[in-house]
């Protein structure tokens, strides 16, 4: 790997190596730019990943965050990654495409926010990402018959078969879910052989087979091959400006030493919590006051049913059935909609969800855990509207690097509550139709979005539609903090596409 002196001004420093930082880093390096990526976590070897929930937290961001509001967001082993590959190390690889209508939510319903992004352009980048990382899926796809996937769909696990049966009995269409999981062995350029899916249920703890796509086995090796440097174990805690008010350097700690890297351009790709946290700490890019505001969390309500036969939902790819029939349901009292996905889950995660989402404790909790192997889950990924009351702020408590810890407050609004009510009825009906003896609704949210949102109007956001700061011309943000609304699809695929788009805009601005 090429390395750069810290006293040399590199073209671009990228903070973060996940879905936001990885594709952009590769694209800039391939264009000949001198680029350095700073990653707070270590550089894992695939042999470091183990199918064990206790040890698996090494790929998660475990530094304390404070949650508030009526529906506090779960952190720790949920929502953020730490290591070369970022959140893609622990993501579930569930890769539905965003529905084009979700990018025009305000135009359609008069609430929320429109994305200042052309849906057709975003889809073209999504298709490129799917080919590069290896997204498997059914062709044709019921809700988009012109769509094609290069790799055939993953094998369904037992919970998926049960959910598909229940949906069929309720007149709900399903398909095998698109997933960034290889179903054929593949030689990844600049990386090597990635094996086909071995039906592990523990992919949230990392994937030893490399069947699951991460930026660590796709975009980052390409970036390094093109001349990028990746510095792991490097936690950024400062940004310096020159006399013009432009970024001139970033300050980070590595191996206990404070390091300063000079740069001509800075890209923050640290995610929906760490990016706004750093900007609030440094007091930058916030003339609009929008940094940290409009925190978004997908509705992720789950319903679990107990069946007579053993299901063993911990085996196989967890989310292998999808329905998009409720992305735009008719006759409802809410804007937007939700996806449905089957669920497979490991025992600790299931227990935690029972406690947090169901309020179970004591003997009731133990009885539910005893029924784990007989249980089937089905969940949603639902739209979330921006709200000023949902926000990230800094506290008086600091971490080991002197950066104030973040407090994230989230309370669902009327639209989110209406989606959850509708989904609870729908999902309960699916499991009952499939033969569940009893069902349980578990409240839940997922993902961290929206805290540095993009906007055409500088007064309404932090970055412009390309991802460039409204305030500082050589500062860019490229992660899901820029989402104006949540979309009903999981964010990772859209974020990788936006990463390529932002890279293209950066290169175009240099050529202008």
Automatic annotation (TrEMBL):
Residue span(s) of domain Glucose-methanol-choline oxidoreductase C-terminal: 386-498
Coiled-coil residue windows: none
Sample GO molecular function, one term: flavin adenine dinucleotide binding
Disordered: annotated segments: 187-207
Gene3D superfamilies: FAD/NAD(P)-binding domain
Glucose-methanol-choline oxidoreductase N-terminal domain ranges (all copies): 80-298
Keyword Transmembrane helix: no
Keywords associated with the record: FAD, Flavoprotein, Oxidoreductase
UniProt KW Nucleotidyltransferase keyword: no
Protein family per UniProt: Belongs to the GMC oxidoreductase family.
The name this protein goes by in its record: Ribonuclease BN
Organism: Microbacterium aurantiacum
């Amino acid at each position: 790997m090429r390395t750069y002196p810290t006293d040399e001004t590199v073209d671009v420093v990228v903070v973060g190596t996940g879905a936001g930082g990885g594709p952009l880093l590769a694209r800039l390096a391939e264009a000949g730019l001198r680029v350095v990526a700073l990653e707070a976590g270590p550089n894992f070897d695939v042999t470091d990943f183990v199918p064990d929930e206790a040890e698996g937290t090494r790929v998660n961001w475990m530094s304390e965050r404070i949650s508030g509001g009526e529906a506090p967001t779960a952190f720790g082993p949920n929502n953020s990654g730490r290591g070369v590959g970022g959140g893609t190390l622990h993501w579930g690889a569930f890769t539905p495409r965003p529905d084009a209508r979700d990018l025009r939510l305000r135009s359609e319903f008069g609430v929320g926010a429109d994305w200042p992004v052309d849906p057709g352009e975003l889809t073209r980048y999504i298709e490129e990402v799917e080919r590069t990382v290896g997204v498997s899926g059914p062709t044709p796809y019921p809700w988009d018959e012109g769509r094609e996937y290069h790799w055939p769909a993953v094998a369904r696990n037992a919970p998926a078969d049960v959910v598909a049966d229940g949906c069929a009995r309720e007149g709900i269409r399903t398909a095998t879910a698109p997933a960034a999981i290889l179903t054929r062995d593949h030689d990844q350029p600049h990386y090597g052989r990635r094996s086909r899916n071995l039906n592990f249920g523990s992919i949230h703890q990392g994937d030893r087979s490399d069947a699951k796509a991460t930026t660590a086995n796709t975009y980052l090796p390409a970036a390094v091959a093109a001349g990028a440097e990746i510095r792991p174990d490097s936690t950024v805690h400062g940004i310096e400006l020159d006399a013009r008010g432009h970024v001139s350097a970033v300050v980070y700690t590595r191996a206990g030493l404070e390091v300063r890297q000079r740069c001509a351009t800075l890209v923050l790709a640290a995610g929906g919590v760490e990016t706004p946290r750093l900007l609030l700490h440094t007091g930058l890019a916030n003339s609009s006051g929008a940094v940290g505001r409009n925190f978004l969390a997908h509705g992720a309500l789950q319903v679990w049913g107990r069946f007579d036969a053993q299901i063993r939902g911990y085996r196989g790819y967890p989310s292998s059935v999808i329905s998009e029939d409720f992305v735009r349901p008719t006759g409802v009292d809410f804007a937007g909609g939700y996806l449905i996905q089957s669920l497979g889950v490991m025992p600790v995660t299931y227990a935690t969800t029972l406690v947090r989402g169901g309020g179970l404790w004591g003997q009731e909790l133990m009885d539910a855990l005893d029924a784990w192997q007989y249980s089937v889950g089905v969940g949603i990924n639902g739209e979330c509207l921006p709200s000023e009351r949902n926000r990230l702020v800094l506290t008086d408590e600091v971490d080991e690097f002197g950066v104030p810890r973040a407090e994230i407050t989230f309370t669902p609004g009327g639209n989110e509550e209406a989606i959850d009510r509708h989904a609870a009825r729908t999902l309960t009906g699916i499991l009952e139709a499939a033969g569940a003896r009893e069902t349980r609704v578990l409240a839940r949210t997922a993902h961290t979005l929206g805290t540095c949102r993009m906007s055409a109007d500088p007064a309404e956001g932090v970055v412009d539609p390309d991802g460039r700061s409204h305030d500082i011309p050589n500062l860019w943000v490229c992660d899901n903090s820029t989402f104006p609304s949540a979309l009903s699809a999981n964010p990772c695929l859209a974020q990788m596409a936006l990463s390529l788009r932002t890279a293209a805009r950066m290169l175009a601005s240099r050529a202008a």
